[in-house]
Design brief:
Two copies of one chain form a homodimer.
Chain A (H helix, E strand, L loop, with lengths): L6 E4 L3 H11 L4 E13 L3 E13 L5 E4 L8 E3 L4 E9 L2 E10 L4 E16 L8 E3 L2 H10 L9 E2 L13 E4 L5 E6 L6 H17 L3 E7 L4 H9 L3 E4 L2 H4 L3 H14 L1
Parallel strand pairs in A: 12-13, 13-14
Antiparallel strand pairs in A: 1-8, 2-3, 2-8, 3-4, 4-5, 6-7, 7-8, 10-11, 11-12
Chain A binds a DNA duplex through strand 5, helix 3 and helix 4.
Chain lengths: ~260, ~260
DNA sequence: CGTGCCAGGTGCCCT
DNA sequence: AGGGCACTTGGCACG
């Protein structure tokens, strides 16, 4: 297996940096570190005065501009962009100008460097997909398998491949045979989640005599709880500490089933 | 001004890489490129089989793990983490293990490298704040200044420093003196945005005789439009192409005002 | 493609 | 710290 070497150049002049970008953009994972101004125009518009940043250009056309703080890039562009590098005279200096643009929506990010500290490029190949456990989907499926964790006697309909019933997470009937809509959340439910449940239940109440609505979440905000009571809906506390440990088995079971399906 | 040089080492062995991480983590912007497995345990849980990735560790404790595609990091941690580097025997190989953890919530990301292609560290200092134009806040303020763009004769209350009236974007009365709540959106409004307006208006209708509700957005989904009609609410189309160009003046005006305030 | 909705969402501001 | 909400949200699945 060939070890892809990293090309690194320290403190290149604008011309060298420009060639470097042209050579590797859209091809390898390209990095630029240096002082630059950044302008963005597209869905919104932004300007960023000169400062030192790390620029990442992925082979798929993704742009990321990171400052020294925080998770979110200070500027970015989604995959599918095209990159241009040029050298221009600006304020009597020769500068590297890198633009990254895309269409629909039309957007452009322009980076004007007053100094390039480092440029490097390398191949990274990643064939693996992230396996994520503990999503809302996981919790839903657990509750489908163990409906008593929602409420004693609750029995969900099988909506596996029948989304025509609607976007409800769980739909079934309670111990008294009353239709019951359940909206599942993996974290503290707020007013927005309560509203979402209310909307689903309202639709069902238009069609049927009596419909209960349950918001199943590890916690609920006070405002949301009040809203639920106003709308004749209920909160159902989920004990994530008990549920989460069951998730790995669930995934294991599904892999096994996959062998047959 | 001292030019911060980048420290770069290519293909370090695990021990060297370990020292490098210990030396720079939490101090400079640290990068690792190489093949690794990644495990995350915290609010959820994830596993990622061995593949080549770019790891970024910012001085503020932010962790970013990027693969070769997409805007979102495949794993991450927000600022405030602590980093540990160790060398361990695993499957008969000596491997670099880097862990990044934090508390409240308790979370840990563990990276086990089977190869480090490159490690580098450098200082980037960025004192500048992004100036973003065309946010929802901008559009709100424009409409406050030019209420006729919402509707002929609309007059908003001055809620500048009085949030007690509620979280409504705009609140005023129309040409007939009828109370009118306006929810502003910068992009196509969907069912969620319609629901949000409905919630605000419902509260006001509980307190007052007659209240109109306007969803002001560049567009609205069909479902949302229907929902608005059902709830006796209205859609108000915003012409962003006409509004956006006015935003720069708005910001300029506010800077000027800032000189006096 | 539009529309809805989850996300380990993140970040901001307010109480 | 809790809570509501915008975000150049991004990403996916479905009609």
């Amino acid at each position: 297996m060939p070890v892809a070497e990293a090309d690194v150049i320290a403190g290149p002049d604008p011309e060298d940096a420009c060639c470097f970008v042209r050579e590797h953009a859209g091809n390898r994972l390209l990095q630029l570190v240096g002082g630059c101004t950044i302008d963005y125009q597209g869905r919104a518009k932004s300007q960023l005065a000169s400062g030192e940043r790390l620029i990442l250009l992925k082979p798929d056309g993704t742009l990321l501009v990171h400052s020294d703080e925080g998770v979110k890039p200070v500027n970015w562009q989604p995959p599918g962009t095209t990159t241009t590098a040029d050298v221009r005279e600006l304020d009597g200096d020769t500068r590297l100008i890198v633009t990254v643009e895309r269409s629909s929506p039309d957007e452009i990010v322009t980076m004007a460097f007053d100094r390039v500290t480092m440029a490097c490029a390398f191949d990274i190949e990643d064939w693996e997909d992230l396996e994520l456990l503990g999503t809302e989907e996981d919790i839903q499926q657990l509750l489908r398998l163990h409906p008593d964790l929602v409420e004693e006697g609750f029995e969900p309909y099988d909506m596996e491949l029948d989304r025509r019933r609607g976007p409800m997470d769980l739909y079934g009937h309670d111990v008294h045979g009353t239709r019951t809509v359940v909206e599942v959340k993996r974290r503290t439910a707020g007013i927005e989640e309560a509203t979402q449940l209310a909307r689903y239940v309202e639709r069902e109440r238009d069609k049927h005599e009596e419909v209960r609505g349950l918001l199943a979440a590890p916690d609920v905000s006070e405002t949301a709880h009040k809203y639920l009571r106003d709308k004749d809906l209920e909160f159902c506390e989920l004990d994530l500490d008990r549920l989460m440990p069951k998730v790995p088995q669930l995934h294991a079971t599904q892999e096994t089933l996959g062998d047959f399906g």
